[in-house]
Design goal:
CATH superfamily of the largest domain: Intergrase catalytic core
Low-confidence stretches: 165-171, 369-375, 402-411
CATH architecture of the largest domain: Orthogonal Bundle
Radius of gyration: 31 Å
Helix content: 40-55%
CATH class of the largest domain: Mainly Alpha
Order of helices and strands: HEEEEHHHHHEEHHHHEEEHHHHHH
Number of helices: 16
Number of domains: 3
Number of strands: 9
Structural class: alpha+beta
Length: 411
């Protein structure tokens, strides 16, 4: 058995069939395997702790020098002496799920488990995964993800490095600390599912100090509401999305969460009872609607399936972030979001003197005794408050219609 060098390896004749093993004279178990087709690979033959012999392919002879392969073989032998089984570990990695496959299994579980998550929650999970998580981690083996990887990803999202324009019409995913907090929370839930299903041994998110979502106190002032109303009229006159403008108006007049409004269906609106019967994160609710909010629904360009339908597909409207951003830009209003419209509704309620319990019930907050009490039909106190708040906001917004300009005849 000669020492394996470039020269001795080049002199090896391929076998007529099968594989020919040529051993190195210096390192036991290290050799070159030559196939009948002439392919040559460095390999190590060793005996594992269970007494069985195993082959470990180190690499192609065309990709490594004999000395490089010999050093790797020495490292592998050292691992074997410590009880490790490199070939079995390599096989396990090949069979292991990628993080992308883990995400797919997790999302499927969210929808098919004994108590499935709400569709809106699943949609939010998908958004976080597709916008921030899958592009970075999707191709990685799930078992290879460490806490250091998660910490680095969290910092990248917070710094806006995962920002991109999505495939849909919902606008741009910008990242930020709030997005990082939400995305890492979803990542933790996915890996916890993987741990329960024995896909991974541990959850790498467990020990990460997550960024707390930033507390916001932003709401629109009376002047800003009026400016937004004027922007709506200008946008309608310019032919911008009527559905998007109607959705923004309804959010202000109702205090609904963004997806509560966008996924609202006509058969969920009880006009006689002056409420919308919806499923929220706190359970089934009959959410009171002021007369002005109901009027906004009546004026919206709805269809048989959705109160706010998509203008291009057979689903609900999804481009609200873009529509709202355009309206705020027209109005000259900075640093506001869809959730700030909900906060504005609550603020107007406080200004009108309504109690925290009443406002919380109108917003669908989980409050002791409130959620169950208003699960079927809102009482007169809620309807009075909903009417007053929506009427006040509607008055500040001004008329929905755009006045037609009639040209005067020349004298």
């Amino acid at each position: 058995m000669p020492k394996l060098t470039k020269t001795t390896i080049a002199q090896i004749e391929p076998p007529a069939k099968g594989v020919k093993n040529t051993w190195d004279s210096e390192l036991k178990g290290f050799g070159v395997r030559t196939s009948s087709g002439g392919t040559q690979s460095y390999a190590l033959l060793y005996r594992a702790s269970d007494g069985r012999s195993r082959w470990y392919t180190i690499g192609r002879c065309t990709d490594m020098t004999p000395d490089e392969a010999r050093k790797e073989a020495m490292r592998l032998r050292a691992d074997v002496s410590k009880g490790r089984d490199p070939a079995s570990e390599k096989s396990a990695v090949r069979k292991a799920k990628t993080v992308g496959e883990l995400f797919d299994a997790f999302l499927c579980d969210c929808e098919t488990r004994a108590r499935p998550l709400r569709p809106n929650t699943v949609t939010t999970h998908k958004s976080n995964i597709e916008n921030h998580l899958r592009p970075v981690l999707g191709s990685r083996v799930a078992t290879s993800i460490t806490s250091a990887d998660v910490k680095k990803l969290q910092a990248s999202i917070a710094a806006g490095k995962t920002a991109h324009r999505g495939k849909g019409r919902g606008g741009v995913s910008t990242g930020g600390e709030g997005a990082a907090a939400r995305a890492i929370s979803v990542l933790g839930a996915a890996f916890e599912y993987g741990r329960r299903e024995k896909i991974v041994a541990a959850n790498p998110v467990t020990d990460i100090e997550k960024l707390p979502p930033k507390e916001r106190e932003r709401f629109l002032t009376s002047e800003e509401i009026a400016m937004l109303g004027a922007a709506m009229r200008d946008a309608l006159a310019d032919g911008e999305s009527e559905v998007g403008i109607a959705a923004v108006r309804f959010l202000l007049l109702s205090g609904f969460r963004r997806m509560e409004a966008l996924t609202l269906k006509p058969d969920m609106v009880d006009r006689a009872g002056q409420c919308a019967r919806i499923f929220t994160k706190t359970g089934k609710q009959a959410r009171a609607l002021g007369k002005s909010a109901l009027a906004a629904l009546n004026d919206a360009p709805s269809n048989d399936d959705w109160c706010f339908p998509s203008e291009r597909k057979e689903t609900h409207f999804v481009a609200l972030p873009k529509s709202l951003a355009n309206l705020l830009d027209r109005a000259g209003i900075a640093d506001a979001s869809a959730h700030d419209l909900r906060r504005t509704f609550a603020t107007i309620g406080v200004e009108l003197g309504f109690s925290e319990i009443i406002i919380g019930a109108l917003l669908g907050h989980k409050m002791p005794g409130v959620t169950g009490r208003y699960a079927r039909t809102p009482d007169k106190a809620l309807l009075l408050a909903a009417d007053a708040i929506s009427e006040r906001i509607d008055g500040l917004l001004g008329p929905k219609t755009v006045a037609k300009v009639i040209p005067l005849r020349s004298a």
